[in-house]
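From the shared-data thread, chain only:
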Amino acid sequence: MTEQQHPVRWGIIGTANIARAVFLPGLREAGADATAVAGRDLARAEEFAGANKIERAVQGYQRLIDDPVIDALYIPLPNSLHAEWTIRALEAGKPVLCEKPLCGTVPDTERVLDAARRTGTLLWEAFSFPFHPQLERIKALVADGAIGELMEIKSNFHFLLRNPANIRLSAALEGGALLDVGCYPVRLAQEFFGPSPASAWARSTWGGEDVDVDTWGVLDYPAGRRLMLSSGFGRGYDTFTTLEGTGGQIRVTNPFHPGPGDADGYELVAAGAQPRRFAAADELSFTPLLRHINAVIRGEQEPKALAVDTSLPLARALRDLAESARRQIVTGAS
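Structure, as tokens:
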């Protein structure tokens, strides 16, 4: 390889489990290098690097940001730290893939997106499913009228959280079910209904350190369309989603992190026809996203689904849902 053709060299800011479980397998399948990981504690970073076959460990996030060898950065820090370290990376001219949500609040989201526009540095929010062939195929079915006019999306994202010390249960770290997993159905609805719901309603159950541990709600969109979402930390893994139209349904077992391990894929149930089942995904959930980012960095593709185009409407919808849920506590409304 020439210098211009070397694999994109990624740095990871933090030692979060999602980097090990999801990002790194997708990165390697996409043909890029896990060059360095940074931690506040060098020993922990070295342990993470050794266990996950990362070339080297670095002490301190800024040191990794400033490393001239690194081409791009992945930021899987707690939500409350996303704004500071994403802005620092953008100002250093390093393309960033920041874990979802981009930030836990609308003002922080606006600050980060302002930095992306000001610096011209590329920024993506780590929703991988909009890049995955499974969603492309489902969108094609909807566009072709396979279920008539799509009117409603019912979407779950639940998993069982057992550790009471998990950062998702900390309000100070901007945890909670809505920000952690409820954001996925909202982002999915954005793909089909557009970025701006007309109204939001939600209810929550509270726990941990004053966070929602279970949130369910509705986003209304123009022309009578709606998203009905359910998210939480209190039951087994469930991402089942149904796209419901005037002439049928598409039932998806795992729309958010599809991969070779999914047994069921998705099913088309249309009026007057036999149900049709489509094969499960044939590559890891993060692979198409990372393949795209790598190609953009190499100058081979134009960027798509950048955070500057998608993240602010999502942040506003999440805020509206959260505020609605809080109002139910204050007013006691049912």
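The mean pLDDT is 95.
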